[in-house]
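Review form for a predicted model. The reviewer records the input and the model, then writes brief findings.
Reviewer: anonymous (R2)
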Amino acid sequence: MAEKVTIGNAELWFGDCREVLPLLTGVDAVVTDPPYGIALENHGQGDGKRRAADYTIAGDACQTAGLHVLSWAHANGLPVLFFASPRRPWPGEWRNWLVWDKGGAVGGGGDARTCWKQTWELIQVAKNGPLHGARDESVIRWPVQPGDSALHSCQKPVGLMAYLLAKLGPAMPLDPFMGSGSTGVACVSAGRRFVGIEIDRAHFDTACERISRAQAQGTLLPPEEAPQPVQAGML
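Model under review:
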C-alpha cells in the first residue's frame, strides 16, 4: 500500500511507482533517473580507483520499471527527460540526446586496469516544447566530486536538476524514481510544485528530510535564474 506525504508544494509517495501512477493528476512532465537495467553494483574494493562502498541498485537487473513509466508518460502525452546509461539507452524516438560530463573526479565502469573511466551519462529527452533561454550545447559540463553522492550512489546534483527543469519549464514535474530527492529539492527551491515516488524506505526518508529543509528555506532562485553549466572555454 503506497504512503503519501505532503511537504509544502511537494507530494511524495513511498511505494512502487507502477502502483502510484494511476493515482496521480496534474503532472506536466516526467523528469527522472530510472534504474538503467545494467545490473550496476560495486563490491567495495576501496583500492583508490573504485568506490569503497558496497552497493547495488534496486530494480537495476532490467528496464521494466523505467519502460512502464515511459509508456505511461507517452500515453498521457507528457514530455520526458530520462537519464540513461550509454550501454543501454532507452528505446523509442527521442528529440534530444544530451551528455552529462561529470568531470574527471568521478567515474568508473569495467576493469579499472583496462577500461577508460566513464565520466559521463546520457540524458534522453522527448516530446518537450520550446526550450527556455538560450540554445545551449548538448554536452552539459557539470563537474561533481565523490562526496556529492554521499546520500545515494546515483545522486544527481541539485543545480543540474534545477538547470534541466528551467530549460524544460514544466510547472509540476514527476520523478517516479526520486532517490534522495535532488529533483524535489530543485523544484521546492524554485517555488515549483513537485511529485516524487521512491520504493526504498531509507532513500524516501532522506528525500523527505531534504525537501522539508528546502521548503523551510523558501524560494532561493526563480526558475529563470537557475544555475548554469560550465562553458567549454572555462575548462
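Findings: DSSP finds five helices and eleven strands in the chain.
Further findings: The two ends are 48 Å apart (CA to CA).
Recommendation: see findings above.
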